[in-house]
Write a structure and sequence with these properties.
Layout lengths: L10 H14 L2 H16 L8 H6 L6 E5 L9 H8 L4 E5 L5 H4 L1 H13 L1
C-alpha cells in the first residue's frame, strides 16, 4: 500500500495509511470497508431515494468542510451541495481529503463556532 499512495510514509498520510491498515487486516475491518465501498458505488444519485434527493431533505443545520486539494471528493462538489442545501454552511480549507488532520486548528475552530450557535 505504501508504494501506491503518494507520500504514504510522511506526515498525516502515513497516519492515515497506518490506521486504514490497522483495521483492514482484520476480517471484520475488510467486511466493513467493502460494505461501505459497495454502498457508495451502488447508491443512486437521483430519484425518489437518491443521494441528492435525500440530501435536500436534511433538517438539522449543516456545515460542510471542503479541502481545495481533495482528489477523492473534489471541491467542485461544493456547488452541488449548495444547490441541494442552500442554507448549509460551507468552509473551504487549503488541504486535501482529511482536514481534521491536515488543518486541525482551522477545522476545530470552525466546528466549535458552528456547534456553539
Amino acid at each position: 500500500m505504501h508504494r501506491v499512495i503518494p507520500g504514504a510514509n510522511e506526515g498525516w498520510t502515513a497516519a492515515g495509511v497506518d490506521e486504514f491498515l490497522r483495521s483492514y487486516v482484520t476480517p471484520a475491518g475488510r467486511a466493513a470497508f467493502y460494505a461501505a465501498a459497495r454502498q457508495i458505488y451502488l447508491e443512486a444519485p437521483d430519484g425518489k431515494d437518491g443521494f441528492w434527493t435525500r440530501l435536500r431533505g436534511l433538517q438539522p443545520e449543516a456545515l460542510f468542510v471542503w479541502g481545495r486539494r481533495d482528489t477523492l471528493v473534489p471541491i467542485g462538489f461544493a456547488r452541488h451541495v449548495a444547490e441541494a442545501l442552500p442554507q448549509a454552511r460551507q468552509l473551504e480549507l487549503d488541504c486535501g481529503h482529511v482536514p481534521q488532520m491536515e488543518r486541525p486548528r482551522q477545522t476545530h475552530e470552525a466546528l466549535a463556532a458552528f456547534l456553539s450557535q
